[in-house]
Specification:
- With about 220 residues, the protein is an alpha/beta fold.
- Helices cover about 40% and strands about 15% of the residues.
- The chain has 2 domains: about 1-100 and about 150-215, 3-Layer(aba) Sandwich (Rossmann fold); about 105-150, no CATH class.
- It has 8 helices and 8 strands.
- The relative contact order is 0.16.
Amino acid sequence: MNLIYIHGLDSDANSTKGMLLEKHCKQHHPDITVLRPDLNKSPAQVREQLLSLIEGLNNSQDEQTESSNTVLVGSSLGGYFSTLISNQIGCPALLLNPSIQPHITLQRFSDSSIFAQDNSDGSSDNNVLHTTAGGWGITPSDLQWFADHQISQVTYPNKVAVLLKQGDELLNSELSQAFYQSQGASVTVQAGGDHRFSDFGEQLPMVIEMLRELVNS
C-alpha cells in the first residue's frame, strides 16, 4: 500500500505528523510506503501534482491499477485536498482536523480592498497576500480558485474517515463533524487536543487500522 501524507498550510514535506507516520510504518508496517510531497504551491498545481503522483504509483503496480492502492492522509488544508482528490477518483482518505472552507478561512490573508475590486486587466491577481512557512505565496487567484472549487459533497463516503479534535483552536470542529456525518463518512471526535494533533504519535496504531479498513471497504 502507498500512503501519501498531505501536509497543511504552514507546513512542508518534513511535517512532524508525516515523519512520524513514515517512521512508524518503516518499523512496524514495511508493506506500507509513505510519501511526503512538498505542496507549497498554487492549489491548481497541488491538485495536478497529487493526481499525477497517484497515477504514477498505481501504474507501477504489477497487478492492480485501482486507486485503492494509494491512500491519502490529509491534515488541515491537506484534508481539503484529500477530499477533493477522493471525490474525483475514489481514492481512500483519512482526514485530520480537515479544512472544509478554505475559500472562507484563508480570506484572513486578503486585503478586501484589493480582492474585491474589479481588475479587468488582472493586475492584482498575482499579488502575494501572505507567504506560508513553507514558502507558498498566496495570491487573490488562489483564493478565487478555492471559491471555485468548494467541497459540497463527499462522493465516496465509504472511502473517507475523519479524525477531529474538539480542542482545535484554528478550525471549527463542529462544522467539519456536521458536514462529513451528513455525507455518510466515518467521523471520530476526540475530546480536547489541538489543531496540530500533538498526540498523533500515540494514535498511530489506530490510524494504521483505520487506513487498512478504508482500503478494504
